[in-house]
Write a structure and sequence with these properties.
- The protein is an alpha+beta fold.
- Helix content is 36%, strand content 25%.
- It has a five-stranded antiparallel beta sheet, with helices on one face.
- A hairpin with a 2-residue loop joins strand 2 and strand 3.
- Helix 1 runs antiparallel to helix 2 and helix 2 packs antiparallel against helix 4.
- The longest helix has 19 residues.
């Protein structure tokens, strides 16, 4: 499923349909995925498109990674991008008064993989599906 929006107001109108879509796709992990997606989208709208004011594209899909069913979320903005490595790979949470970095810290805690493209304007989130009780996944 693909969503395109240009500002917080447009995203606000799509939040409930997006949440419902996640509930249909992966009810067992919909809540943490929605929080991670929301953080990623807020970052893209707040920081990503500042110079271009272009749209943010959000894609939600399913795929198998290493023979495990996963949900894949891609958030892309039209901004210049940035180097996320100082925020992505830090070992401790941001200090309470730090002005940035909390969103990526939250995202990392809720998904299995976080990747940026080389330009730094596309974020990919991967979360493994949880097998229903009694149906162990290999």
């Amino acid at each position: 499923m693909r969503y395109v929006f240009s500002d917080m107001a447009e995203f606000a109108l799509l939040r409930e349909p997006i949440r419902e879509h996640l509930e249909q796709v992966a009810p067992e992990i919909a809540a943490p995925l929605f929080v991670a997606l929301n953080e990623a989208t807020n970052n893209a709208l707040t920081h990503g498109g500042r110079s271009s004011r272009g749209p943010v594209t959000l894609q939600i899909g399913e795929e198998d990674i290493c023979d495990q069913p996963c949900v894949k979320i891609v958030v892309r903005d039209e901004g210049e991008g940035f180097d996320p490595s100082p925020l992505l790979y830090r070992g401790t949470p941001p200090a309470p008064l730090e002005s940035s970095g909390r969103g990526l810290w939250i995202i990392r805690s809720l998904v299995d993989q976080v990747r940026y493209n080389e330009r730094g304007n596309e974020l990919v989130l991967i979360r493994r599906r949880i097998a229903p009780e009694g149906n162990a996944q290999s």
